[in-house]
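Q: For a teaching session next week I want to show students how multiple molecules come together into a single three-dimensional assembly. I've collected the sequence lines for a complex. Could you give me the predicted structure tokens for the whole thing so I can convert them for display?
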Amino acid sequence: MESNKNFVLGIYDDEDVLLKAVTKVRESGVKIHEVYSPFPVHGLDEVLGYKRTRLPIAAFLFGLLGTTLALTMQTWMLGFDWPMIIGGKNFASIPPFVPVTFELTVLLSALGMVGTFMIVSDLKPYKKPRLMDIRITDDKHVMAIDLAKNKLTVDQIKGIIGDSGATEVNDKKFED
Amino acid sequence: MQVTSSVREPLVTGGKTVHDVTEDICRQVEGKPTKSWMMGMAISLATLGIGTYAVFMLLWDGIGVWGLNKTVGWAWDITNFVWWVGIGHAGTLISAILLLFRQKWRMSINRAAEAMTIFAVICAACFPGLHMGRLWVGFYWALPLPNTWGSLWVNFNSPLLWDVFAISTYFTVSLVFWYIGLIPDFASIRDRATNKISKAAYGVLSFGWDGAAKTWMRYESVALILAGLATPLVLSVHTIVSFDFATSVIPGWHTTIFPPYFVAGAIFSGFAMVLTLMLVTRKVFKLEDYITINHIELMNIVIIITGSIVGIAYITEFFIAWYSGVDAEQYAFINRATGPYWWAYWTMMTCNVISPQLFWFKNIRTNIAATFILSIIVNIGMWFERFVIIVTSLHRDYLPSSWAMFYPTFYDVGVYLFTFGLFFTAFLLFAKFFPVINMAEVKSIIKSSSLKSNK
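A: Of course. Below is the structure for the complete assembly, covering every listed component.
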């Protein structure tokens, strides 16, 4: 069977039931493709066994880039390229460069991190999402099991999900 | 698992379920525009029209059409600039600082407050641009771009240039923060849309959001770091705005108290504007269960605190002027309170220092009509604060023969009206086509907050 096409979906109404269900389903040896929620459920990433996101590191590195660029730009422009006497001050002195350096650090850090987030999460304006269930963005949590990636039969998987507190167990087939 | 103390008031009342949240918020977006919205839009567009004429004439004839003179070179333009930037600060405070402090009551007001921030910053940015007279060169001369004079670079020692960077960074980061929060809610509207146009439009706006746990995990991380970045940013913005004055040698401006005093004033006026807008939005869109009296009371408490800080700053400023022993400084302050602009000074004192103290009474700070009136009074007071600081410090300079008064012309008022028209047109469009409450965030507290109140 081809992967990423045939799914069994467990629909949950309550986030606390969902958290317990994820642990239980994983313990029964079923591989979960992904869980979809209408709002962020705290602790879901831990029970799913996801590694912590490295986006904070990206933010830090982009921030560092901003600091470096800002300091280099200001020192070069006012200190070397066209030195100007302004109130008899040093050509390139750091204190008056602090505000612009700070602003560019924040700007690059924010834009860089958000850009990284968009790329790694594949969020883009023209993308058509593969929705498991239309109610995900309303009030239902959906646990999706990729049949191709599990050795258990469909009925076994459905049984495990049904026992875990799901209010509905559905099939989902993608054509593309 | 979220645990909320049983003594804490529910943040969402009426026993709303998760599905009710989607229904209540999407209804505004999906329905036809109401009569009150159409009326509001008509008034805003009319104001924008008059304002656009004033802006056109200003650009055509130059800033001579304003009431400025040789002595008073800054008046309504920079007053309005500081006033609008200040208003913007409340949105970031609500969405970023309250997020870092894990204050969940921010959730039903942050979306509209951030929208207010973005529109207010756009209005603010009009003034530095327009007061240069030649808007088009403003963009070019203010940025460190290569040019044919050398390149002769911008002066990085100048607070006015710091402002360019501060305001543009603040605008960009606020916009990004706001948009990231909107994506999941656009997806909710997309999945409910019945007609082709809204399906396509919200499909593009929602960036293909599918609600995956991994994306949510990253989303939360991004939101937290953006909040961490926006917090020092918002404090830096008004600090830098205050540097425009504080680093000068004008008596009345040259004070070290300006940065904290400006930041407190900004939050003070911003919260007042949030209340003005939210009280109307809440009524028109029937959001009483989401923006409760509890929310209004908490915002009023922020107003008492920041209003009192501002009051203490006024008194400190006065005291330090006397204590400094500098004649020019002492004169500047005596002239503010008793000179030809005494009425502006005492309007500011009454509106900013005395009126918010009424919120110490619980029945006033939980009264909607009283809150609405006081929120407008605070914003009038904060406009006068900036007017007093700018005009009264300038109008009597070191040379008595050049002392002058400032009288606004039609074009001073007109350009101010332009920004009002722009602000309310943008806010009304937002209120109609965007979800005014952050659905995803509110849904996450339904179980701990709303359903409890049902029992």
